[in-house]
Design goal:
Elements (H helix, E strand, L loop, with lengths): L1 E4 L3 H13 L4 E4 L2 H8 L6 E5 L7 H10 L8 E5 L4 H9 L4 E4 L4 H14 L9 E4 L2 E4 L4 E4 L2 E3 L3 H12 L5 E2 H8 L9 H14 L6 E4 L3 E4 L2
Parallel strand pairs: 1-2, 1-3, 3-4, 4-5
Antiparallel strand pairs: 6-7, 7-8, 8-9, 10-12, 11-12
Helix pairs in contact: 4-8, 6-8
Length: 223
């Protein structure tokens, strides 16, 4: 099930039609209040979220979703007319899995949706439990422990830590991290990687030094 939270009726109905014609189940909402009522009962497989909304803006909604451990793993694609680099980075930094600017083609949107969903369809047999340097990350349960304390990460923070730990001791460039975690080219400023590393380190607390900065190159997990 894909939820569509978009106040423009024409866009909302066109998206829903395009999704259902491609075999997806979709439910659309014009107002955040209506969305929250349904969201609290049933989580979607993916949320298409407009930024400029009545009642509550999309970034605020996204932050609420990411801050709740029950809903933090829901994939979210932002839909917006704001196309500046700053707005794109703001959306990604808030935890969006992708950012689609208006106007957009329906088939291109469906392709982006499929790409995001593929990231979440990795079979459990391929998932790992990594334990290194006091950090334990369970890819299947989507949990992270720093020492004996469980910490709660956004999807991007989780994916970033997982990628670094899977490549322990190897330096990963900012461009590689951006393309691997966000599946975006370097046309998006790589500063978003630095922002996520900073917040990730803050959450790791005393274990923050496990993530090392390699000046002029990128980052590595070493411990």
């Amino acid at each position: 099930m894909i939820y569509i939270l978009e106040d423009d009726e024409n866009i909302r109905k066109l998206i829903k039609y395009s999704l259902t014609s491609q075999g997806f189940d979709a439910q659309d909402f014009a107002l955040p209040s209506a969305f929250w009522k349904t969201f609290e009962i049933q989580k979607p497989d993916l949320l298409l979220l407009d930024i400029m909304l009545p009642e509550e803006d999309g970034i605020s909604i996204l932050k609420k979703i990411r801050s709740n451990s029950r809903t933090s793993s829901v994939p979210v694609i932002m839909l917006t007319a704001r196309d500046s680099e700053f707005d794109v980075v703001t959306g990604l930094d808030a935890g969006a899995d992708d950012y689609v600017t208006k106007p957009f083609g329906m088939m291109a949107l469906v392709s982006r949706i499929k790409a995001v969903l593929r990231r979440y369809e990795k079979s459990d047999s391929q998932k790992e439990v990594l334990d290194s340097g006091g950090i334990k990350i369970d890819e299947n349960k989507h949990t992270v422990f720093a020492g004996s304390k469980q910490i709660f990460l956004t999807i991007k923070e989780f994916d970033l830590l997982l990628l670094l730990m899977k490549n322990r001791g190897n330096v990963l460039t900012r461009d590689y991290l951006l393309e691997s975690v966000w599946e975006l080219s370097t046309e998006i400023e790589s500063r978003t990687v630095d922002v996520h590393i900073r917040t990730l380190r803050q959450k790791l607390g005393e274990y923050e030094s496990n993530i090392e900065t390699v000046r002029g190159v990128g980052y590595k997990y070493e411990n």
